[in-house]
Amino acid sequence: MFLFIILPLLFYPGVSSAGYTAERCAELYLKRNRFYHRKGLCFTRDTANMAFPNNRYTCTITSSQNLPISANEKRWVDSIVEEERYLGCPRMP
Question: Is the pTM above the cut of 0.90?
Answer without folding.
Answer: no
